[in-house]
């Protein structure tokens, strides 16, 4: 599939394309019930004067917050598509699983057994750092949760949380990471690893 065609798959969003003084700007907003654009939060992709760089932003009440930049147009459009899906189509997870994890106070093994029943172990790790997974490391009766890229870069998600709370965070982000592969793997297989990890971190961060 041509990555430009991905915009057509966002037909349930309000999409606006502007060309101003050589700049190309694409805005994507969720729709209100009446079909109008909800301008509180959106995603923007911008290219200035035909340069090689495409900048990706989150818009919050008319303020831009940069998420990343891409030197290949097709990769930038894919990043826009994935960011929109990650931002506005939340994955809730199973409330029963979360309730089970919330009563785990000290025994990490109990939490691991619950997680193993509900998530592919490719996507999470307890106590041992695993690349391409959501990791939980326990220390001094609290736990840190982070995503570890294949370049061994840590994207911290939460720090010094009580174990039960950290397990719920790990569950939420692990199912989101699993969903990334389920939804987008066919689009991302040809990407360089560096670009893939950049998009994945943006997706998880939203």
Could you please describe the fold and organization of this structure?
This is DUF4369 domain-containing protein. Helix 1 runs parallel beside helix 5 and helix 4 packs across helix 5. Helix content is 36%, strand content 30%. The protein has two domains: 85 residues, no CATH class; 88 residues, no CATH class. The two termini are 25 Å apart. With 206 residues, it is α+β, with helices and mostly antiparallel strands. The strands form two sheets. It has a five-stranded antiparallel β-sheet, with helices on one face. It has a four-stranded mixed β-sheet with strand order 6-7-8-9, with helices on one face. The chain is built from five helices and nine strands.
Low-pLDDT parts are none
What is the number of strand segments?
9
Shape: elongated
Number of helices: 5
Strand numbers in spatial order across the main sheet: 1-2-3-4-5
Oligomer: single chain
How far is the first residue's CA from the last residue's CA?
25 Å
Element order, helices and strands? Answer: EEEEEHHHEEEEHH
Organism: Metabacillus halosaccharovorans
Protein name: DUF4369 domain-containing protein
């Amino acid at each position: 599939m041509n990555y430009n065609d991905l915009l057509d798959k966002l037909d349930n969003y309000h999409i606006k394309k502007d060309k101003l003084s050589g700049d190309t700007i694409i805005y994507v907003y969720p729709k209100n019930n009446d079909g109008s654009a909800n301008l509180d939060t959106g995603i923007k992709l911008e290219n200035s004067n035909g340069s090689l760089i495409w900048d990706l932003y989150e818009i919050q009440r008319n303020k831009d917050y940069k998420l990343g930049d891409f030197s290949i147009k097709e990769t930038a459009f894919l990043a826009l598509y994935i960011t929109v899906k990650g931002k506005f189509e939340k994955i809730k997870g199973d409330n029963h699983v979360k309730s089970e994890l919330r009563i785990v106070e000290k025994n990490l093994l109990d939490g691991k057994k619950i997680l193993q029943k509900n998530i592919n172990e490719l996507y999470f790790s307890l106590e041992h750092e695993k690349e391409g997974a959501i990791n939980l490391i326990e220390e001094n009766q609290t736990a840190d949760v982070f995503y570890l890229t294949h370049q061994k870069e840590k994207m911290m998600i939460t720090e010094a949380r009580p174990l039960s709370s950290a397990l719920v965070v790990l569950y939420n982000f692990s199912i989101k990471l699993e969903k990334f592969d389920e939804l987008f793997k066919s689009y991302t297989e040809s990407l360089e690893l560096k670009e893939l990890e950049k998009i994945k971190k943006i997706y998880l961060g939203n």
